[in-house]
């Protein structure tokens, strides 16, 4: 059955970028993936000093508010950059925190959907037609975390193998 998530305090809230699972990158700790994502909108722009304020924001809501401030321009390549940046950050989150890694693995091959009523890129949007990139990233990471299959799917039966003379 499809698994929907959105708010960090609700079911499967650990899949939300607002969940309190810090990541460490380049010697710096980011309190949530959301802090990291919002700050990197301004990397290499005149507003780059804002990155520190976003990293130190007391909550992911505040980090998002600062990052979404329309008076500031995200980097010009942001739309091309953001999927890979999000993938790397979410992957690090689930490699760092083994308790939620297990929750992700325990979802098996169920579809994961960020049930955002407003976001048609990262989520499914109000009518379900959104691209659900966050859910897709989580499913990709889940498959990459699977232990490798030890057995070939169609092994040659032992009795049919030619034995040395
Ligand atoms: N979970 C969640 C949200 N969703 C998150 O918002 C981010 C997209 O931000 P932007 O690119 O600035 O529109 C992305 O991390 C997406 O998963 N937004 C919220 O206001 N509250 C929330 O609880």
UniProtKB/TrEMBL annotation:
* InterPro entries given in the database record: NADAR (IPR012816), YbiA-like_sf (IPR037238)
Q: Which reaction does it catalyse?
A: 2,5-diamino-6-hydroxy-4-(5-phosphoribosylamino)-pyrimidine + H2O = 2,5,6-triamino-4-hydroxypyrimidine + D-ribose 5-phosphate; 5-amino-6-(5-phospho-D-ribosylamino)uracil + H2O = 5,6-diaminouracil + D-ribose 5-phosphate
Q: Determine the domain of life of the protein's source.
A: Bacteria
Give the transmembrane region(s). Answer: none
Q: Where is this region: Disordered?
A: 58-81, 145-165
Locate the NADAR domain: which residues?
A: 4-146
Polar residues composition bias: residue spans? 146-165
What protein does this entry describe?
NADAR family protein
Protein species of origin: Phormidium yuhuli AB48
């Amino acid at each position: 059955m499809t698994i929907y998530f959105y708010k960090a305090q609700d079911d499967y809230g650990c899949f939300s970028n607002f969940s309190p699972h810090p990541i460490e990158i380049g010697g710096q700790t980011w309190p949530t993936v959301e802090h990291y994502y919002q700050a990197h909108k301004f990397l290499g722009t005149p507003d780059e000093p804002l990155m520190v304020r976003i990293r130190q924001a007391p909550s992911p809501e505040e980090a998002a508010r600062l990052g979404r401030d329309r008076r500031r321009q995200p980097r010009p390549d942001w739309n091309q950059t953001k999927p890979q940046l999000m993938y790397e950050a979410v992957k690090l989150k689930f490699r760092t925190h083994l308790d939620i890694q297990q929750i992700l693995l325990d979802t098996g091959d169920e579809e994961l959907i960020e049930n955002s009523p407003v976001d048609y890129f990262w989520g499914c949007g109000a009518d379900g037609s959104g691209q659900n990139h966050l859910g897709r990233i989580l499913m990709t990471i889940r498959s990459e975390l699977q232990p490798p299959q030890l057995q070939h799917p169609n092994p040659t039966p032992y009795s049919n193998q030619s034995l040395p003379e």
